[in-house]
Amino acid sequence: MEMERSKASLVSSIMAVKRKSGKTYGQIAEETGLTNVFVAQVLRRQAQLKPETAPKLREALPGLTEELLEEMMRPPMRSYDPNLIQEPAIYRLNEAIMHFGGSIKEIINEEFGDGIMSAIDFYCSVDKVKGVDGKDRVVLTFDGKYLSYTEQKSEHMVSRVRD
């Protein structure tokens, strides 16, 4: 039985195809109709490539083999390297969320009620804009479905519903 390739090996092969293409995540996003962050997630095996999108990705990145496309269409093992926090860009993102998180949570509660933003029904993009001072600025958009917490009434539990 053939041993499955490791995630790291797959990602390495996929990223080599992207590098060889010379395209940015933004260019691939435009060609596939996906967001730039979702393209990165698919290529890094953090999101599943849907069969209807595979031909568009193959056209955008012709170097992708059938084997790589098939792997990318399998549900991925979503994970992260715990050392990732040591990368300064990641550390600063985490710091920003920790610093602004309490205020963001309060505004979510004020605007929506007691609940959270989904990270599953979720869109994310990174954009570059010029600030009022003419300097480059990073715009991160987190667009997640609102999910309210449920009052847990015993009568609503399926396991407790009797015939």
UniProtKB/TrEMBL annotation:
Residue ranges of domain Cyanate lyase C-terminal in the record: 79-152
Function in brief: Catalyzes the reaction of cyanate with bicarbonate to produce ammonia and carbon dioxide.
InterPro entries registered for this protein in UniProt: Cyanase, Cyanate_lyase_C, Cyanate_lyase_C_sf, Lambda_DNA-bd_dom_sf
SMART domains listed in its UniProt record: Cyanate_lyase (SM01116)
Keyword terms of this UniProt record: Lyase
One Pfam assignment: Cyanate_lyase
Organism: Davidia involucrata (Dove tree)
EC primary class: lyase
Enzyme Commission number(s): 4.2.1.104
Active site (record annotation): R92, E95, S118
Sample GO molecular function, one term: cyanate hydratase activity
Protein family: Belongs to the cyanase family.
The organism's taxonomic lineage, starting at the top: Eukaryota, Viridiplantae, Streptophyta, Embryophyta, Tracheophyta
Protein name: Cyanate hydratase
Catalytic activity: cyanate + hydrogencarbonate + 3 H(+) = NH4(+) + 2 CO2
UniProt entry tagged with the keyword Lyase: yes
Record has Chaperone as a keyword: no
